[in-house]
Amino acid sequence: MNTFKKILVYGILVVTLGIVGYTLFIYNFTLSDGVKSGILTKFGNRGVVFKTWEGELNEGFGASRFFPFSVESDESEVIEDLKKYQGQYVKLEYKERMKTLPWWGETNFYIIKVIPEKSPNMDNN
């Protein structure tokens, strides 16, 4: 019985460390990063169990070219900027994660910076 308890304890420890390691990996590993530009068409706080910040950027190449994104709740400056520039042309710096968890957001794309820009389609004279 003593050997069985050791095996059980070590098994639980290995599983727990595996879950923690996997979560840290998907949180810290960035699959890609970059910049997308377009008109910020939608941004808000949504969800039933987990409230997350979600939005869409219209990239301007037709009605079907939308870039869905999420924002982490602790990114208060980014959240305020997205609220401020709603309906305007912006550049969004993002990072893409391999996976997401329900309390992080609905997409794998997380906005880290908002840059207001003049639309290339408007006359800037």
UniProtKB/TrEMBL annotation:
Q: Which residues cross the membrane?
A: 7-27
Keywords for this entry? Answer: Membrane, Transmembrane, Transmembrane helix
Q: Does the UniProt entry include the keyword Transmembrane?
A: yes
Superkingdom assignment:
Bacteria
Q: What is this protein called?
A: 6-phosphogluconate dehydrogenase
State the species of origin.
Flavobacterium ardleyense
